[in-house]
Design a protein that fits this description.
Length: 184
């Protein structure tokens, strides 16, 4: 389950459109559809969703507060559907970088056409890599398809993640932006 939570958190941050040129700053909501051809990974994700849904209110609140302190608000909906909210600043959009908080992640974004970008990333901590495509539909909407590879206990895990993002408004409320690493 540890690797599954890490992948969800990683997916929440990687879901932001790195190459977006006209994105609006403010509060964004991402809906995540995570799947895997690995039966063990699917079982772990299903178990994680079940545990999150059954979590006592105090424990859920503590977990949500910890995530929010790190700039991500995660919600589990009916049937284990996952969504997250993040506050994107003008700087985050202008830098065109994934807001990865920890680790030694490197990324490469390659424009394909006006609103499409190819993206690849490689992280040492947690060990993960992936590639995919980002489509910016408008300044208030985008879609992402990612294929992520990670290592858990020496075994490779593969996950496919489809994310849709929508802008909710300029006001992020109490949710603070993720701290971006300093530009090199």
């Amino acid at each position: 389950m540890k690797i599954t939570l890490a992948l969800i958190a990683l997916g929440a941050t990687l879901a932001l459109p790195a190459g977006a040129q006209t994105m609006k700053p403010g509060l964004w909501e991402m809906s995540h559809n995570v799947s895997s051809s690995d039966a063990q990974m699917n079982a772990a994700m299903a178990e994680m969703q079940k545990q999150l849904a059954a979590m006592p209110p105090e424990q859920r609140k503590a977990m949500q507060q910890m995530m929010e302190r790190n700039g991500v608000q995660v919600n589990v909906g009916p049937g284990g559907a996952l969504s997250s909210r993040m506050c994107m600043t003008k700087e985050m959009i202008q830098r065109k970088e994934f807001p990865v908080q920890e680790g030694d992640c490197k990324q490469k974004v390659t424009p394909v056409s006006g609103n499409r970008m190819k993206v690849a990333f490689n992280c040492g901590k947690p060990p993960a890599s992936g590639e995919g495509e980002i489509v910016v539909d408008s300044d208030t909407s985008y879609r992402v398809k990612m294929h992520i590879k990670s290592t858990d206990g020496g075994e490779q895990r593969n996950v496919d993640m489809d994310v849709t993002g929508k802008w909710l408004g300029a006001d992020c409320g109490n949710l603070r932006p993720i701290s971006l690493p300093q530009a090199k």
